[in-house]
Amino acid sequence: MTTKEIPYKIYLEENEMPKAWYNLRADMINKPAPLIHPGTHQPMTLEDLSPVFCEELCKQELNNTDPFIEIPQEIRDFYKMYRPSPLVRAYCLEEKLGTPAKIYYKFEGNNTSGSHKLNSAIAQAYYAKQQGLKGVTTETGAGQWGTALSMACSYFDLDCKVFMVKVSYEQKPFRREVMRTYGASVTPSPSETTQIGKKILEEHPGTTGSLGCAISEAVEVATSTPGYRYVLGSVLNQVLLHQSIIGLETKAALDKYGIVPDMVIGCAGGGSNLGGLIAPFMGEKIKGNADYRIVAVEPASCPSFTRGKYAYDFADTGQVCPLAKMYTLGSGFIPAPNHAGGLRYHGMSPVLSQLYDDGLMEAIAVPQTEVFAAAEEFARVEGILPAPESSHAIKVALDEAKKCIETGEEKTIVFGLTGTGYFDMVAYEKYHDGIMDDYVPTDEELEKYFETLPPIA
Ligand SMILES: *Cc1c(COP(=O)(O)O)cnc(C)c1O
């Protein structure tokens, strides 16, 4: 097939959409390490998890055996409102670069939440509703997850309590208003409404909060309010499972035109979009049926994969959550103000951590100003204003496509464009005004946080 026969946008038909999520864990030879109980250090059981999370989601969290889990019809119906998402051939970008590389991106920004997070939010809200719960609690940093969850909760008529990191609450009033439009209550964290919030405020008066701190507050409210559970937008196995819809659609669209990628690239915060995008490709790679270069891109200011330790660590500042074995910078790590808010988590998905440790994927850390330069280069020809998080993947895709100019290789590059950046214009403004910095933590700083890792073998 000649290039010209491949459309700009490869859409799947509605009936070609996946009917089941793909659970990569079932095909992993080395399974991700289990979550362990913060008190007993034993693997978390269904009984341990169910006071915190919805029952069905606990089962998904622990399921390392079923390769496919059916997507309930109600969720598929919701997906149809904004899926299948397009796989776009970046013809204009290729032409501008003058590269022989073929670049494709899977665009997840075509919904009001502006990111892929809705794929898991709707699933989690559905299972909460099924269980007869009144509502859910969560945290949000940059605001994308809170927005997605409030949309999902309003669809299923569930109450949604969001703890929003205080600095974002103040700096991103419009994100907050989107959440309130969908009926969520939004509390700046740390707050006086929880025990842990009060404690943190006493110890650190004037703190502008962190994701770890907001998680502790949300978990406290969920476990102390009858009819509520806590939901999380990344890192967990269940979230990667739901996000596999991204990879399944991508693979189906590529297969339709007989396209085989050489590289699959995605940005990595907690690892959910990347885990979802790469799932079917990684599955084939593990089984020896195909070989792909799979690359995670993270900010140099929060380098969990490239400079972190693979160890059990706390998921939250209050240390109330289960411990996860992951590439981590230590739960006390507070990243320097970095505009890619959604990539600022100290840890990484246990699934991706295991795959990375097994050498099945690579990771690259990139400095912030180069990410924004790439974002702008992309926006000017492809017509989409990308989220700063997504632009980490753009940066590496551009670098690879530019290498192909020298080598003449016609590499096929696929990357995940996770969302749009309309709520990130303050960051773009800093970039344009030349006042964005590229702070990278020193080894000494990282050492300090590694000392806070719990001593678990
Ligand atoms: C949250 C977010 C990310 C990072 O989260 P992952 O769990 O690593 O996928 C990336 N891009 C956008 C647009 C986001 O909102």
Using brief descriptors, characterize the structure shown.
single chain; 457 residues; alpha/beta; Rossmann fold; four-stranded parallel sheet; 18 helices; 15 strands; globular; binds pyridoxal-5'-phosphate
What does this structure look like?
The relative contact order is 0.15. The protein has one domain: Rossmann fold. The protein has 18 helices and 15 strands. The strands form 4 sheets. Strands 1-4-5-15-10-11-14 form a 7-stranded mixed sheet, sandwiched between helices. The protein has a 4-stranded parallel sheet with strand order 8-7-6-9, sandwiched between helices. The mean pLDDT is 94. It starts with 8 loop residues before the first strand and ends in a 7-residue tail after the last helix. It has helices spanning 46-49, 55-62, 73-82, 91-97, 118-130, 144-155, 166-171, 173-181, 195-203, 211-224, 237-256, 272-287, 304-307, 350-357, 368-382, 388-407, 425-432, 443-450, and strands spanning 9-10, 20-22, 68-70, 87-89, 102-107, 135-140, 159-165, 185-189, 228-230, 263-267, 293-299, 309-314, 323-328, 362-366, 412-417. The protein is of the alpha/beta class and 457 residues long. Pyridoxal-5'-phosphate (PLP) is lined by residues 115, 117, 144, 234, 267-274, 342-343, 387, 389-390, 418-419.
